[in-house]
Amino acid sequence: MTVHVRPTEAELGAAVAEAARSVLETMFFAEVEACAPLTAEQQQNMTGVAVQFDGGMRGEFLIGFDPRVAGVLASGFLGADEADVSPAEVEQVLCETANMICGAALSHIEAEDHMRLGTPGPADAASGFASGGWLQEFFVTPDGNIVTGVRLG
Fold it and tell me: What are the pLDDT digits (tens) for 61-112?
């Protein structure tokens, strides 16, 4: 019988922070640093993506990107000029980014269990984070801020 031990907030936060840094630096060549928590106003216009997950743990992952960061990440990932990347392509890249970060973080915490990730989709980052219960990590890049959040339930 497998005993599931719920990770501590510190373990979960560290796993998400490391996954975000790793994915953003290796897949997008983005310079990423942890930063002080952002206010609700600073998160207001962020483009968001949510991913539901279950298996050994059940919950939701939410990530918010400043609009400028979203465009820069998408153009870098696609190898195209930012002006040539459509809003639909930006959305697809951000969904894949959320999927990669969430998957990497959960595989670090739940190495022995089979985790299932839902299909990433657009979300209102500001209202999602305002709903409470999120363990958030905050990052700054030369092009703006990124906020990750995870909540178990």
Answer: 999 999 999 999 999 999 999 999 999 999 999 999 999 999 999 888 875 5
As a 3-state breakdown, the chain gives helix, strand, coil percent values, each rounded to 5, of 45, 25, 30
Is residue 24 within 8 Å of 146, Cβ to Cβ? yes
Top-tier CATH class for 11-152:
alpha beta
Q: Amino acid letter at 141? A: T
Where in the chain are the domains?
A: 11-152
Q: Is the Cβ–Cβ distance between 65 and 73 less than 8 Å?
A: yes
What is the rounded CA–CA span in Å between residue 14 and residue 21? 11
| Secondary structure in 3-state letters for 14-32 | HHHHHHHHHHHHHHHCCCC
Euclidean distance between CA atoms 134 and 131, whole angstroms: 8
